[in-house]
Amino acid sequence: RTSWKRAQCIVDEFRGGCSTPLSRLRQIVDNMVVEMHAGLAIDGGSKLKMVLSYVDNLPTGNEEGLFYALDLGGTNFRVLRVQLGGKEKRIMNQEYKEVSIPPKVMVGSNEDLFDFIATELASFVASEGEGFYLLPGQQRELGFTFSFPVKQTSINSGTLMKWTKGFAIAETVGKDVVEELQGAMHRSNVDMRVAALVNDTVGTLAGGRYEDDDVMVAVILGTGSNACYVERADAIPKWRGPLPASGSMVINMEWGSFTSAHLPKTEVDDALDADSVNPCDQIFEKMISGMYLGDIVRRVLWKLAAEAAFFGGKVPSRLEVPFILRTPDVSAIHADQSPDLKEVIRVLRVVFGIQSSTLQMRKMIVDVCDIVAERGARLAGAGIVGILKKIGRDGGSLANNGGLENHSYAAAEERKKTVVAMDGGLYEHYPKFREYLKQSVVELIGKEAAEHIELRLSKDGSGIGATLLAASHSSFV
Ligand code: ADP
Ligand code: MG
To answer: Boundaries of each Hexokinase N-terminal domain copy (predicted)?
Structure first.
């Protein structure tokens, strides 16, 4: 029989291990800022890669012409075409197609992956119809959104540092992903030039900036998690090239690999990490992103079953299956207002094949979901405040600023509105997660400063952003 005392003990212990009081969040913010500095100083200076994006100009609105984008970054990939009409006409036309990547392609061969992508792109190009037109003599051009850690070597080249989010194709690591794509496009007879290689966060930033000049930061909370922001070029010691005319450069943080001794990590997280395809890596991502939240919950439920006979004498076999519980199920459970917790009943039955449960058990399961989501959201919020602090937009610079001139300068900076473009299925579809995140930002920087910060859902901005960056780096227009 279920040992309620033991079960409550497991949940309480887990809650304690996951707790994110303000004091702890502040330490994480400070760690984030320190790591950002270290990663900007030299390559390898920090777990935070702080990748130079080679994007030193964000969209202005003047971009014009037909451009394609291809977004590879998670479970789905998307191809997109946009007809840009300049300042007046803006986005005149757009079309996209979404394709899910067969799991075996994610862990298969390099050539198969890129051939799969190029083939889908070929069929999409073949369907180009009315409303899309190239200038005479213009070759089709593409912005390649590739959301894995890449060591960027120019605006349209970069080598893969490692796969994440369940992709594992050893051959690709160290290769220039643009060359790989260009080669596969050649094999598939797609006549197209890759004009820009962009991380999805950079695409989201570009897409956001096209709409609003106040966008300074972009954050993805989807299958994985990452962030980028606009940095002053003279604050990037490891940048050896000439200072760009704009004076700034977008930095792709690769924040998924952030780690800190202050992260509230539990033995459940350690076990998830040990069983993952990339152990000891992407620790921050494994606590905050959509790929993992569901599995953290599953692992706690497994513990309840194994150690407190939560579902009877035997552990239901499907509780043992990694990733069987998905984050959308967690958010559905979390959103359920029904008095008898129908969503929990549904998830237990459909996902785990568990037919009976009591209300007391279901309440406990909701609790576990709440603990995991709250922790993830608050950590993501701390990460965002770290970035705001690094660029002096957190409202905190007045306090430690002595000089009068600097004082008024800081005050002016602070009054500026700062928009953080947010994208990703987790952020978009999980209202409780959004609330917890926002709440942590307000707690960290204070209510007044938070009025100048807007977290704005920038849905699918990264695809449009990639076409905009292809346009601004075109060889033809
Ligand atoms: P990707 O990150 O793969 O590019 P998305 O940004 O669309 O794609 O994010 C998809 C992820 O978002 C899913 O893996 C899932 O973890 C999360 N997600 C999707 N729907 C929901 C939902 N209803 N509630 C919570 N998370 C969700
Ligand atoms: Mg994505």
So the answer is: 11-210
Any residues with CB less than 8 A from the CB of 9 and at least 6 apart, and which? Answer: none
Q: Is 127 labeled as catalytic in the residue annotation? A: no
Nearest ligand to the CA atom of 426: 1
Half-sphere exposure of 335 (CA within 13 A, CB side): 14
Is any ligand 1 atom within 6 A of the Cβ of residue 145? no
pLDDT at 398: 46
Does the ipTM exceed 0.90?
yes
Residue 165 CA: nearest ligand 1 atom is: 3
Residue 61 in contact with residue 87, Cβ under 8 Å? yes
Whether 331 and 399 map to the same domain: the answer is yes
Closest CA to 195 of 239, 139, 250: 139
Q: Give the helix/strand (H/E) hosting 93.
A: strand 91-100
Does 253 lie in the same domain as 217? yes
| d(C-alpha 192, C-alpha 72), whole Å | 17
6 in catalytic set: no
Give residue 73's pLDDT band: very low, low, confident or very high (50, 70, 90).
confident
SS3 of 256-325: the string is HHCCCCCCCCCHHHHHHHHHCCCCCCCHHHHHHCHHHHHHHHHHHHHHHHHHHCCCCCCCCHHHHCCCCC
C-alpha span between 372 and 368 (Å, rounded): 6
Q: How far apart are CA 337 and CA 297, in angstroms?
A: 20
Separation of CA 424 and ligand 1 centre (Å)? 6
Q: Are residues 319 and 258 in the same domain?
A: yes
Query: Is 80 exceeded by the pLDDT of residue 404?
Result: no
Q: How many CA atoms lie within 13 A of 409 on its CB side?
A: 7
Say if residue 46 is in the same domain as residue 104: no
pTM over 0.90: yes
List pLDDT tens digits, range 192-227: 999 999 999 999 999 999 999 999 999 999 999 999
Q: What is the pLDDT of residue 405?
A: 43
Which amino acid is residue 451, in one-letter code?
A: E
- Closest atom of ligand 1 relative to the 200 alpha carbon: 4
Residues 154 and 216 in one domain: no
Neighbours of 353 (CB within 10 A): 11
Closest to 323 in 3D by CA, of 157, 140, 166? 166
Domain boundaries, position 394: 1-51+212-459
